[in-house]
Amino acid sequence: MAEASQSHNRAAEAPRNGGWTIAQNWRSYTQDEHDRWSRLVARQEKLLPGRACDAFLEAKETLKLPRHCIPDFSKVSDRLSRLTGWRIAPVAGLIPDDVFFDCLANRRFPAGAFIRSERALDYLSEPDVFHDVFGHVPLLADPVYARFLEAYGKGGQRALSRGQLHNLARLYWYTVEFGLIRSSDGLRIFGAGILSSPGETVFSIEDTSPNRIAFDLFRIMRTKYVISDYQQIYFVIDSFEQLLDQCYQDFGAFYDRLQAARDIEPHELLPDDHVITTGDLRYFRTRH
Ligand code: HBI
Ligand code: FE
């Protein structure tokens, strides 16, 4: 993902991205919806100490994400943009890949403006305001992570043009969504898919089922993933610097090598893996 620049996009919030950005319309949320946000935050905050990485917990405070009402994107964006130049762009749900990457490449994070229904409190497949703003936005205040995600957006644009998106999407999945990071006190979570899920917050750190192995870019790009269930493998980075260093390159040569390499199943371990914990795959066996 070469070409990531440190320049921030300070363009005013004008209609852009082919009209995929909507108005958040903060006043239209009901009291029920604000309450739902509060309960989701409270439930998650009980579980995060000792499991979420420090950078996430600190950034959440720095950004002053409100606990008792759905955040006003423009207020959070004003704080965030002073730190790293990122802003939140409200969207109605999933947006096309090219629009998504264009946003990231310009330090705009597309965030669902709606909140999940009461029935879907534990899990929904669409990215809503809790997953996007509570899960993803805090780390955008970390300068190194901020550069990594911008570089990912630029890499996404190139992957699309090469027809290699399925490989690059795995990198996003196993880092931005479901990544773990080492700390001096043990493994910690930085992936937003985990940080917005109470079940997986505990599972990813404590369960004996999943394999946990050291981050390896080529290995990740070969590894299939399953959506809508806990992961059978987690990749562990040493630091955001490592993630940025590894990803701050043009993946062209990688993609050529990938053509010749077979895909790896999510539960598989390979002889070359740097294994951190070997899973007993107990959970996996009950599901397959
Ligand atoms: N749209 N709103 C939204 N959020 C995403 O995470 C997202 C998307 N569109 C496409 C997309 N993700 C994928 O391209 C990436 O996960 C690779
Ligand atoms: Fe996400």
TrEMBL record:
InterPro entries: ArAA_hydroxylase, ArAA_hydroxylase_Fe/CU_BS, ArAA_hydroxylase_sf, Aro-AA_hydroxylase_C_sf, Aromatic-AA_hydroxylase_C, Phe-4-hydroxylase_mono
EC numbers for this chain: 1.14.16.1
Metabolic or biological pathway: Amino-acid degradation; L-phenylalanine degradation; acetoacetate and fumarate from L-phenylalanine: step 1/6
The entry's keywords: Iron, Metal-binding, Monooxygenase, Oxidoreductase, Phenylalanine catabolism
Stored CDD domains: pro_PheOH
Domain named Biopterin-dependent aromatic amino acid hydroxylase family profile: residues: 1-288
Reactions catalysed according to its record: (6R)-L-erythro-5,6,7,8-tetrahydrobiopterin + L-phenylalanine + O2 = (4aS,6R)-4a-hydroxy-L-erythro-5,6,7,8-tetrahydrobiopterin + L-tyrosine
Family annotation (Gene3D superfamilies): Aromatic amino acid hydroxylase (1.10.800.10)
Top-level enzyme category: oxidoreductase
Cofactor(s) this protein cannot do without: Fe(2+)
Key word RNA-binding present: no
SUPFAM superfamilies from the UniProt entry: Aromatic aminoacid monoxygenases, catalytic and oligomerization domains
Family: Belongs to the biopterin-dependent aromatic amino acid hydroxylase family.
PANTHER family reported in the protein's UniProt record: AROMATIC AMINO ACID HYDROXYLASE, PHENYLALANINE-4-HYDROXYLASE
The protein's name in its UniProt record: Phenylalanine-4-hydroxylase
Organism the protein comes from: Methylocystis iwaonis
